[in-house]
Amino acid sequence: MFEKLFTPIKIRGMELKHRIVMPAMGTKFSGQASYVTPTHINYHVERVKGGSALNIVEVCSVHTPSAPRGFLSISEDEYIPGGLKELTDAIHAEGGKAGLQLWQGSLAVGSDQTAQILMACDTPFSEEITLPGATIEEIKEVVTCFGKAAARAVEAGFDCVEFHCAHNYLPHSFLSGGINFRTDEYGGSFENRAKFPLECIRQSGKIFRKICRYSCELMPMMIIWKAA
Question: For position 40, which CATH number holds?
């Protein structure tokens, strides 16, 4: 059953030395900031030494106003020399590959009261409190940010990226008929609800194609692109 586990595999051009992959897991190693720390680097290096062929680094914010402290961010250029490049270099030095989750967390960013909460639609939490749905301008802004984040991921040395479209985060919230009750072009039918996540995917892919060889592997509720 596991005879292929320790054999090499090529995924749309990205070759792994075997088929053990470390999935993304939150660490909170950033403390009250959003930069890679030495603890992040040591953590991932040890996983590569332990046998991981591909390390998917934890969720990484793409949109500065909604980027919560305590989570990694790739929403600005400063995060590349601020540890992301050092992290990928360390993983590569041990013979591993590095991936990154591109993320907009919607309600999940509420753990940091300084972060903007973007919702798929107006969402009441009580008679007194309703969180407003994202405006069209905010939707377009986030789409653009996904593309810019994909470009930064390549510059930082990541071998692939995942588009996080699960767990009630913003792309998944738009996709879900149980969460998204918008009445405009981003709500209603499945095609309308899928419009925002698809725009994010296309923008990320378009930017990726400009700067590296492009490939795409569909995974459950995620998309993975391979860098050159």
Answer: 3.20.20.70
Distance (Å, whole) CA 110 – CA 97: 32
The first and second tokens of residue 33, run together, are 């900031």
Which pLDDT score is estimated for 227?
56
Instruction: Please pick, among 43, 79, 169, 214, the residue that the annotation labels catalytic.
Output: 169
pLDDT digits (tens, 9 = 90+) for 44-67: 999 999 999 999 999 999 999 999
Residue 58 lies in a domain: yes
- CB neighbour list of residue 154: distance below 8 Å, 6 or more residues apart: 208, 211, 212, 227, 228
Query: Residue 100 sits in which domain range?
Result: 9-107+142-164+194-226
Report strand pairing: 54-61 vs 21-22. parallel
Stated as kind and residue range, the H or E segment containing 48 is helix 38-49
**Please, are residues 98 and 227 in contact by the beta-carbon 8 Å criterion?**
no
Q: Is residue 55 part of a domain?
A: yes
Q: Does residue 186 have an active-site annotation?
A: no
Query: Does residue 178 fall inside a structural domain?
Result: no
Give per-residue pLDDT as tens, 105-149: 999 999 999 999 999 999 999 999 999 999 999 999 999 999 999
Count the domains in the chain.
1
* Inter-residue contact 203 to 143 (CB < 8 Å): yes
| Structural domain contains residue 23 | yes
Residues near 195 by beta carbon (within 8 Å), at least 6 away in sequence: 174, 185, 186
